[in-house]
Amino acid sequence: MRELLVMKNITKKFGDIYANKDINLIIREGEVHTLLGENGAGKSTLMNILIGLYQPTSGSIYYRGKKVKIDSPSKAMKLGIGMVHQHFMLVEAMTVFENIILGVTKDSSIFIKKDRIKKDILELASKYGLNVEIDKPITEISVGEQQRVEILKALYRGAELLILDEPTAALTDIEVEGLFRVIKKLISEKKSVVFISHKMREVLEISDRITILRMGHTIKTLDKNKTNAEELAALMIGKKMVSSKYKKVSKTKENIIALEHISFNKESKHNGIKDISLTVGKGEILGIAGVDGNGQSQLAQVVTGVITPHEGNIYLYGKKVAQFDPNDFINSNISHIPEDRNKMGLIGDMSVKENLILKSIEKSKFSLKKGLFLKKKIINQYSNEMKKKYDIRCSSIDQEVRNLSGGNQQKIVLARELEMEPELLVAVHPTRGLDIGATKYVHDKIISARDKGCGVILISADFDEILKLSDRIAVMFEGQIVGIYSGDNPPIDEISLAMAGKAE
Length: 504
Ligand SMILES: Nc1ncnc2c1ncn2[C@@H]1O[C@H](COP(=O)(O)OP(=O)(O)OP(=O)(O)O)[C@@H](O)[C@H]1O
Ligand SMILES: [Mg+2]
Hints:
The chain has helices at about 45-50, 75-80, 95-100, 110-130, 145-155, 175-190, 200-205, 230-235, 295-300, 325-330, 340-345, 350-355, 375-390, 405-420, 435-450, 465-470, 490-500; strands at about 5-15, 15-30, 30-35, 60-65, 65-70, 80-85, 160-165, 190-195, 210-215, 215-225, 255-265, 275-280, 285-290, 310-315, 320, 335, 365-370, 375, 425-430, 455-460, 470-475, 480-485.
């Protein structure tokens, strides 16, 4: 196979930190090349250099044998390099169509040609099986569909090398299969794909070759057929890892939270919930299984006081909740690892330490007179302790969190929420985007919170995660609970059917 792209001795420094150091990478025509590495290893940075968002501190790039300088995303686009970012970059106020054509042509005749362009886009979409609703605003389509829009946008601009930065993190198994069909189609046309994922099973399924990055360095490039999950994991973290198996507990008598006939927007299949009754006991993990977009977000928002149910009652520690207010829920010792850490979990332009104490700032441990005078020394000490304990990789606790790698941002949310020693933990996709080491760490943490008596509502689109951690499993479909199963030897086939809406 011919070489399409060569990155040679690429180094990128941010201040004193080397995000990439002396990286060498060769992408061939018609291959799926996976970048594998821990959170903060430098994968996104390297690809942002390729797409012209960052300039390397040193090193060179060759495209089809010629040395190139990629100083802007439009230059990358001209060369035929397109990228779907880890955090989507669609303009929410615009429609699918407007997003796809954004910046492609400044020509005012676009309005005249609109119908033809739309037809072209739809043809492209059907060729690759990228099902999108072209006139809908971005806010009204699911995460999976937003991703299809991003891919379509890149292909419409003529991408021959498509970079997918953790494209499967937010997708369900069925959507991942759809994405893989698109990737295979691209490969059959001799296009190339750079794939980034922390999920070993996917990496071994879709890749032709795999390059391991560790702490900004390239460790090795391997043929998929000549390696296995253990070797890859060991290369990635620099040592062998043992996976853990957790003991399941049976339901305790004492309820932490009880929902009785809760409904919210109950007519809506995708963002409503309908007549939900369930309980979570002290020291148990209730896993909510289901395909994303079946009301899980709304359920999480109700049990954290973010939205008020239209019908039904919630009892916390046996007392009926009179008013739904997120602060009241926080004060009732409920922690929340939210679905979207960028929108709900973190404040990007605040520092690591500010984000760590965000919810505890009024506590006497960190301030006098309810947040008026901060105990700076103690806050610094505490933050450095958390940095170490949760292995948050940042240059210092004063770094703005938006500059951290995706996985390290997630660790800050976890540190903050778990350190509050909650009595109820609502964890929504808690390991999305985390590397295997960090995922194991979070799983251990959730289990140990449970063992200390914390009740946990675990919402995850990752079925393996649900099976591994849950003491009981509730399946959600179209806003309803369609079955509750024991987590000890659960009937996997039956649960899968229930998730697809095919329960008896
Ligand atoms: N704009 C920036 N300013 C300062 N440091 C940065 C910036 N962008 C990235 N870094 C640092 O560079 C390192 C590599 O980050 P990068 O986002 O490339 O990691 P990653 O491999 O994509 O991780 P993840 O799997 O968590 O997404 C991290 O230590 C990060 O904090
Ligand atoms: Mg990244």
